Amino acid sequence: MESRRGSAKIALDIEPRFDRLIFMDQKPAHCAALEALKASHPGRDVHVLNGDANVIIQNNINRVNWSSRRAIMFLDPYGMEVAWETLQAIAETKAIDVWFLFPLSGLYRQAARNISGVDATKRKALTTMLGTDEWEAELYSPVPPIIDLLGTLEAPEERQRNADVAGLESYVKRRLETIFPLVADPFPLPPQKKPQRFSLFFAASNPSPKAIDLANRFARHIISAGISSHVRPR
After folding, report:
1. Which of 165, 204, 213, 226 could potentially form a cystine with 182 if both were Cys, beta carbons 3.0 to 4.6 Å apart?
2. Any idea of the CA torsion for 75, 65, 62, 180, to the nearest 10 degrees?
3. Which residues of the chain have pLDDT under 70?
4. What pLDDT sits at residue 221?
5. How far apart are CA 183 and CA 207, in angstroms?
6. What is the pTM assigned to this prediction?
7. For residues 50 and 56, what is the distance between their CA atoms, to the nearest angstrom?
8. Per-residue DSSP letters for 128-168?
9. Are 48 and 35 in contact (CB under 8 A)?
10. How far apart are CA 207 and CA 214, in angstroms?
């Protein structure tokens, strides 16, 4: 069995080192594992927070003077838990760059092919994640009426999703671009298998041209390295 490092271990192993690392998880068992990882790295400035990351981030992000600090945040939700308000709070710091493992499969499951399959619970989840209720008008189109030999048949109004998986991913990118000055083209995961389940987005919050240029080159390098690592010669 192949053993791979988790994202927390990777963050601890990065050189040059991060000055401080903050890990957040809602599951106590996962936090216990993170505490053990912290204990195996004495001398590092590591904090483990148990709770809803949306609440932790939104309640604490403005306690830091971001004018003189920079940070990278990796959002790796279990599903569609990341709220739009959390992304807005991150973007407003103008100092935090984000790697967001977006749950694309969750989006196309909730955004059913027919709008009649999107109940109140799914509507709320989609609006919370996308930050607008305009997704319905953007992603769904009326179904043309059926015409038979006698003319148009009367049928209840129906709308179907007009975006395929690639279209949904593009819509998410456009939404992120409304709050972040730079959003790189996402990296699909898994990269060579269908269906695509995730989109790894990079978003930079610093609007200065110099910062955007640097962040863009950094993102392209990381994403290109990821693509290269998954390409196998035939």
Report:
1. 204
2. -50
3. 1-4, 145-157, 226-234
4. 84
5. 12
6. 0.87
7. 9
8. HHHS-STHHHHHEEEPPPPEETTEEPP----EEE---HHHH
9. yes
10. 11
